[in-house]
Design goal:
Length: 68
Amino acid sequence: MTEHLVGTVSHYYGKLKVAGIDLSGRLNVGDTVRILGHTSDFTQIVDSIQVEHEAVASVQPANPSVSR
């Protein structure tokens, strides 16, 4: 399976075990992601995605000309 960058983690909330991600590609529930950083290197299946506290099945980078 080939890897491609879908974003970078901008925030991590340790107590909740939740990451905020600045997306550069599409991400779906069920995708396997690899988290690679200075002190981290692991894979995990995306169990859920939320946008503005609403559950969604997939996300993609926002279109800067449309989003506000």
